[in-house]
Amino acid sequence: MSTTQTRLADVAYRYPTAEAPVFAGLDFTIGAGEFVALVGGSGVGKSTVLRCIAGLITPSHGVIDLPPTPGDGSRASAVVFQDTRLLPWRRLRANVGYGLSGLGLSRAQREDRIDDVLELISMRDFDGRWPHEISGGQAQRIGLARALAVRPQVLLMDEPFSAVDALTRTRLQDELLAIWKRLNMAVLFVTHDIAEATYLADRVCVMRGSPARIVFDETVPVAHPRQREDATLQTFVQRVADAL
Amino acid sequence: MAERQPSNPPPAFAAKRQAGPGATRLRRVVLGVLGLAAFIGLWKCAYLFNWAPRGTIPDPFDVPAALWDEYSSGRMLPAIGSSLIHYVWGLGIGTALGFAVGLMAASSRVFDDIHYMLARVLRPIPPLAWVIFAIAWFQVSHAGAAFVISIGVFWVNYFATASGVRNVDPRFYELARAFGHASFIKRVTSITLPGAMPSILSGVRTGVGQAWMTLIAAELLGVPGMGQEMNSAAGVGAYDAVVVYMLAISLIYTLSDGLFALVENRTLRWRP
């Protein structure tokens, strides 16, 4: 259970080879347990924001505060990648456990964690398989499980469902919502799909411009559980589209 | 145009394609044995009709007797043993060093910069050219043979490891950082080595074969082993004994390669 928020203050990032920053003056927070969608066109730097929060790259300017980890074998953040990035030389079970070393967990505790998250994504029976033996949607679920296993304070999802077919995407979205509700963690969901963002998130932020800034930041006016064709939701979709 | 290209295959082709995999395999074995028999027949002809200088082609049917002779005279097993010692040491040292230097070259920029010119100078020197120094430094000894063998094996493994490591998908390194494997040791053991393993192992396997080639050549120059036995057999015109050692080399190579293929398949069973 996280008690504090993820906060970005005046964050900018410039690629080493570029003249101007991709984005600048970024200020926003993700509350404890809040689901925030970050929307923007391609090349606007949404994934770069996510990488900054994950600590994979260092912002050129500004401060990023992550919730403190309670010291129970959890990490501040965990990433779900669009390309799943399962390690082909590890069985699914070992892939799910990849982030668990160095957290001070005993072997039995690690095995329990893996069992729990595999249960959560309904893939308990698959744990002995190799990554090349499963479908794209299943691989994406394993990628989610790998991130959930480290009990992140904030789950960072980088266009996780954009490479799967439409039917699978819808199912994965609903599964994600169910899991989010059970685990009560903060989520930052980067996507270019407005319908996806508005269906999933508590709050939608839009990035635009060069250097990009947050030009739109509003709470979705419909409570969960939502109907995809809900009229209020559709109106909101239109407003996000206008901001984009 | 269209008339010259029938859309359906001729019936004979279709019938052949319908034969089961078992039949195909049998056919392959039968043809393989026939090919082997034809070769021995040709060899026998060469012997009978003196296609080469008199006495230099042995009768293929004398080879089993020559094998027994070499074995019972007590020459063969010590020669094989001696060769195996060269082989194991040369292969082991060359593989370990080639792997280590290749790994460093691909993972340390400084090391890469320091060594690349040296590597470019040394690489084209054939391993056998080092025989001169091997004899000068180690005299005629096991160490000298192992030294020469290890040089060839070193380069094969060096290139295989370095290119394998360089070709590891950089996105996996980002994953390692995101999931607490940022330290050098954790990164190398969880990403670099398994990612480069297919290339590393194919290098080792090439080395397993290459080591035999240099081994025999090094021994022909005087170090005790099968190569030397071949040389002394040829010296007294016993070409059938030379063939015995050639076949022994072939058999040992096939065994070692097969053994290594098992290891390779087991290690890389994650591959589709």
Mean pLDDT over the full residue set of chain A: 92
**Largest pleated sheet of chain B:** none
CATH top level of the largest domain in chain B is: Mainly Alpha
CATH superfamily of chain A: P-loop containing nucleotide triphosphate hydrolases
Distance between the termini of chain A: 34 Å
The largest sheet of chain A has its strands arranged as 5-6-7-3-8-9
CATH architecture classification name of chain A: 3-Layer(aba) Sandwich
SSE string of chain B: HHHHHHHHHHH
Number of helices, counting only DSSP H or I runs of 4 residues or more of chain B? 11
What's the number of structural domains of chain A?
1
Which two chains have the most extensive interface, and how many residues on each? A-B, 24 and 18 residues
Descriptive overview:
The complex is a heterodimer of chains A (244) and B (272). By secondary structure, chain A is α/β, with parallel strands linked by helices. Chain A has one domain: 3-Layer(aba) Sandwich (Rossmann fold), CATH 3.40.50. In chain A, 33% of the residues lie in helices and 23% in strands. Chain A has helices at residues 46-54, 92-96, 107-120, 136-149, 166-183, 194-200, 231-243; strands at 6-13, 23-30, 35-40, 61-65, 77-80, 154-158, 186-191, 203-209, 212-219. The longest helix of chain A is centred in the last third of the chain and has 18 residues, at 166-183. The two termini of chain A are 34 Å apart. In chain B, helix 4 (76-107) crosses helix 5 and helix 9 packs parallel to helix 10 (226-235). Chain B is globular. Chain A binds chain B through residues 54-56, 75, 78-79, 81, 83, 85, 87-91, 98-99, 101-103, 130-132, 146, 150, and chain B through 171-172, 174-175, 177-181, 186, 190-191, 194-195, 197, 270-272.
